[in-house]
Design brief:
Elements: H1 5-27, H2 31-57, H3 69-104, H4 113-126, H5 143-168, H6 171-226, H7 233-249, H8 255-261, H9 265-270, H10 284-300, H11 304-312, H12 316-342, H13 346-375
């Protein structure tokens, strides 16, 4: 018996996306961005009807849920970080939807297949918040480095400074030692990011060479089996047009995907374009710069109260409390963005991040206090 709960899960996710886009569109002031959001609202509403129709086919009533947390989170993201990072994060959050669709393509009732393929086509090609001319450029292409860099800076420096307070009980020492740790971490993270990105680019080049060899082998096989050799894009495009026409006449909805794939890089590679590696996919120097800068920005957040405290000479423990609160708020925001990036549960990821960060800070503070007590180290 078919487990149609998978359709319920997809319906719920589409409903969540619809709620997020609707909330953002309602409050958006930028005319161009608002138009894109409204287009996504329309598409998500269309998808909701597709999955609602399938659920009713199985005599299932779609659950009516109202979402508040996720729409509010993305609204705050838009307010604090702007439309560029919001658009990038939303696209990453949407990335799993097409995969979910493709997972169920073989169990969709045949009479509903056409509408599902239309939804897949929307997911793959139409649901884009960023314009093609701007995507992959500037800060929008480095959201991952920004978020992970800031998160690491927050967590590592907060834990370190808590241990320092446990030993020295001094605002100035905590601020200066934390700053040194932040600078050291910035350099370390930047070098690590550069080497990682450089290796990733080298692997991509190697993979491209492998792909090129595989395609050459595929061409030879096609020439043997079909009596054709695709030496030009024109020939490939003509045969692809014939296949699309054949599928369309047969009522096979997959012709829609092939129509879109005609401009795909794979077809360009098989035909006329020998450039496999896109220069935008890997930029080691920029990756290192973004992760280093935002690591340092993350590190500054838990240190601010100690710098201020060293001037006005208030309690170091009060400043530690302020530091923990400020860092926790920032950790929740970055954890939510990471969860959206990796398709995890946002609330679960945020709670785990805060608990682990506070546990690490508490442990280092306890260790610092023990060191101070038994070794009589103090300032």
């Amino acid at each position: 018996m078919l487990d149609n709960s998978v359709f319920e899960r997809i319906f719920d996710k589409e409903n969540l996306h619809y709620s997020i886009y609707s909330r953002l569109a309602k409050h958006e002031k930028n005319r161009e961005f608002k138009a894109r959001l409204n287009n996504l609202v329309r598409l998500e509403r269309k998808h909701l009807l597709v999955w609602e129709d399938i659920l009713r086919f199985y005599n299932k009533k779609p659950a009516e849920r109202k979402y508040r947390f996720y729409p509010d989170m993305f609204l705050l993201l838009r307010f604090f970080f702007g439309k560029a990072i919001t658009a990038s994060t939303l696209e990453l959050y949407e990335a799993s939807s097409a995969a979910n669709f493709l997972d169920v393509i073989n169990i969709v009732p045949s009479q509903k297949l056409d509408s599902v393929v239309s939804a897949i086509t929307d997911e793959l090609y139409n649901e884009k918040l960023r314009s093609e001319s701007k995507s992959g450029k500037g800060i929008m292409s480095h959201v991952r480095e920004i978020v992970f860099g800031m998160n690491d800076g927050l967590v590592e420096v907060l834990a370190s400074v808590a241990g320092i307070v446990g030993i020295y009980k001094s605002n100035l020492v905590a601020a200066l030692a934390g700053l040194i740790i932040g600078i050291s971490g910035t350099l370390s993270m930047s070098v690590g990011a550069y080497l990682s990105s450089r290796s990733e680019k080298d692997v991509a080049v190697s993979e491209a060479m492998r792909l090129r060899l595989e395609l050459e082998a595929a061409r030879e096989r096609a020439a043997k089996d079909l009596g054709k050799t695709y030496k030009s894009y024109k020939t490939l495009s003509r045969d692809l047009d014939n296949l699309i026409k054949k599928l369309k006449n047969a009522g096979d909805p997959f012709y829609k995907l092939l129509e879109k794939e005609k401009s795909n890089s794979l077809f360009r590679l098989m035909g006329r374009d020998k450039t496999v590696i896109n220069s935008k996919t890997s930029a080691p120097t920029k990756d290192a710069a973004y992760i280093g800068i935002f690591y340092m920005l993350g590190a500054v957040i838990p240190l601010l109260s100690f710098f201020i405290g060293s001037v006005i000479h208030d309690s170091v423990y009060l400043n530690l409390l302020i530091s923990v609160i400020a860092a926790s708020v920032a950790i929740v925001i970055t954890a939510a963005m990471i969860a959206a990036n990796t398709n995890e549960n946002v609330v679960k990821r945020a709670v785990q991040s805060v608990i682990l960060s506070l546990a690490a800070s508490g442990a280092t503070f306890f260790i610092g206090t023990l060191v101070s007590s038994y070794l009589h180290v103090a300032v």
